[in-house]
Amino acid sequence: MDAYFFWLFTVGMLLGAVAVVLNRSPVASALSLAFTIASMAGLFVLLHAFFLAAIQIIVYLGAVMVLFLFIIMLLDLKAEEARSFKPFSLAAGLALAGFVGWRFFFHVLGEDGRRPMASLPQPAANDIPAIGNLLFTKYILPFEATSVLLLAAMIGVVLLSKKDLK
After folding, report:
1. DSSP assignment of 96-157, as one string?
2. 18: number of CA atoms within 13 Å, CB side?
3. Which of 18, 31, 76, 127 is the most exposed place for a label (fewest CB within 10 A)?
């Protein structure tokens, strides 16, 4: 039964991720992202990582998706609908995505075929003090960089959504 739910959540997550990229409507993309996040929470439940599943639902599906939908409603979407794809931009985006995927593959697998990620400390999924200790000691720089990146994105959205008062 677990294998059935694994494949159900995995296929749902992949279909939701593809729908995020392929949808022309920002609201439909946001709803597809919500479906992807919910499917990922289901995978966490299958791994008996109930804390991570709850955080996935509460923080990402609740707070971040509300923020995304608020930003989508704040922006002027009529100008975005008239935009078309340019062949050079599409080719550059696909090349960049291929390069990032290629580097990610070798980062996970390792240049010499061994897995470098296996040497990282792996706390149990429900060991909340160990997760917090790792997050705020060894991984404090990526944690803070993520918060600065989110702050810069929010400032950028506010600046982009301002109406020109001429």
Report:
1. HHHHHHHHHHHHHH-TTSS-GGGGS----TT-HHHHHHHHHTTTHHHHHHHHHHHHHHHHHH
2. 5
3. 76
Query: What is the separation, in whole angstroms, between the first and last Cα of the chain?
Result: 63
Model confidence, pTM:
0.56
- How many H-runs (helices) and E-runs (strands) does the chain carry? 8, 0
For residue 89, give both structure tokens.
């931009």
**For tokens 């944690």, what's the residue?**
143
Taking the C-alpha atoms of residue 105 and residue 111, their distance in angstroms, rounded to an integer, is 9
Contacts with 33 (C-beta within 8 Å, 6 or more apart), sequence order:
16, 20, 65, 68
pLDDT score recorded for residue 76: 62
pLDDT in tens, 148-164: 888 887 787 777 666 65
Within 8 A by CB and 6+ apart from 20, the residues are 29, 32, 33, 36
What pLDDT band is residue 126 in, cutting at 50, 70 and 90?
low
